[in-house]
């Protein structure tokens, strides 16, 4: 009964008592089959068996992994800008630029101005900011250079005014560049052929110097006069000379605006001096004089001229003092 099979009582009694009835072999087989089914793992090799009465188990599903799990995406909308945000922020920066060029006290600290410029760049307004900064700087740079027109006829005094204007410009543009640093980093560097705020200021200064022939001419003439005075043995302000030549270098005007006329004046100076000195001196003295002049020009390149000027300068000096008078020197020897 435990196995679920119902046997004839006589047959069951015969089985339990060891006796045999008709069909005893069949009963023995049924009992043996039930015993085998009740004994798990009896017939499977290695302990495993297929229980015919057990429902097939369902294998558990593996947990979802990062590779199979579908990512959850949350879209956050761009925060809405306050009304007139760009105009109000630019008004603050414009007032600051004006105060910087006019040497006035800033209405707010530099850190806040830096953050204001950064906010405009963060909201993709860098292009407008760059053009506005450029326009505002040009207004003040143009005014500074125009103020030099008609100034002192004394060339040394005039050069001092130019040098002061240049130094003020550099100091002011350094402050503006600091405020607009994120404009350079977030916008300018990602736009092809667009110069930094500092280089933009240099371009504007050069533009307005070139637009004023009087200022450019008086500056170059003053520099050439200083060098000529030094060649004649006079004391000059070498610091002033060095600063203004550095200005031409920074503006990219040195080669065309200064070096070319400088070499022409050098050629004229030594052409005149060579003829005069050769007539008044014997050959040993003249050669010593020529050697001394060559050393002076070499030192001049070290002190305030560009290094690239040395080669053409020495060649010009040698030509006018030595090569031009080779025949006369040989005859006197």
TrEMBL record:
Belongs to the cullin family. Residues 90-332 form the Cullin N-terminal domain. GO terms for biological process: ubiquitin-dependent protein catabolic process. The lineage of its organism: Eukaryota, Viridiplantae, Streptophyta, Embryophyta, Tracheophyta. It comes from the Eukaryota. InterPro entries: Cullin (IPR045093), Cullin_N (IPR001373), Cullin_repeat-like_dom_sf (IPR016159). Residues 1-26 are annotated as: Disordered. GO terms for molecular function: ubiquitin protein ligase binding. This is Cullin N-terminal domain-containing protein.
């Amino acid at each position: 009964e435990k196995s679920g099979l119902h046997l004839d009582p006589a047959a069951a009694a015969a089985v339990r008592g060891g006796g045999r009835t008709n069909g005893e072999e069949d009963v023995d087989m049924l009992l043996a089959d039930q015993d085998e089914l009740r004994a798990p793992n009896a017939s499977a090799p290695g302990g495993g068996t297929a229980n015919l009465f057990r429902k097939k188990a369902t294998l558990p599903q593996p947990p979802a992994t990062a590779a199979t799990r579908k990512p959850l995406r949350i879209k956050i909308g761009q925060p809405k800008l306050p009304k007139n945000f760009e105009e109000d922020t630019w008004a603050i920066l414009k007032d600051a630029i004006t105060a910087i060029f006019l040497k006035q006290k800033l209405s707010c600290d530099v850190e806040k101005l830096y953050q204001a410029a950064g906010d405009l760049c963060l909201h993709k307004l860098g292009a407008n900011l760059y053009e506005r900064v450029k326009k505002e700087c040009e207004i003040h740079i143009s005014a500074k250079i125009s103020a030099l027109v008609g100034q002192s006829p004394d060339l040394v005094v005039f050069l001092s005014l130019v040098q002061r204007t240049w130094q003020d410009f550099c100091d002011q543009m350094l402050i503006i560049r600091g405020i607009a640093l994120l404009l350079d980093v977030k916008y300018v560097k990602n736009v092809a052929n667009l110069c930094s705020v500092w280089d933009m200021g240099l371009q504007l200064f050069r533009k307005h110097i070139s637009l004023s022939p009087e200022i450019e001419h008086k500056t170059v003439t003053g520099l050439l006069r200083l060098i000529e005075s030094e060649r004649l043995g006079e004391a000059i302000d070498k610091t002033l000379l060095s600063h203004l030549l550095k200005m031409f270098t920074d503006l990219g005007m040195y080669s065309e605006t200064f070096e070319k006329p400088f070499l022409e004046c050098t050629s004229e100076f030594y052409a005149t001096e060579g003829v005069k000195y050769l007539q008044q001196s014997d050959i040993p003295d003249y050669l010593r004089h020529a050697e001394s002049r060559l050393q002076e020009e070499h030192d001049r390149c070290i002190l305030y001229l560009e290094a690239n000027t040395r080669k053409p300068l020495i060649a010009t000096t040698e030509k006018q003092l030595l090569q031009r008078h080779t025949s006369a020197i040989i005859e006197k020897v």
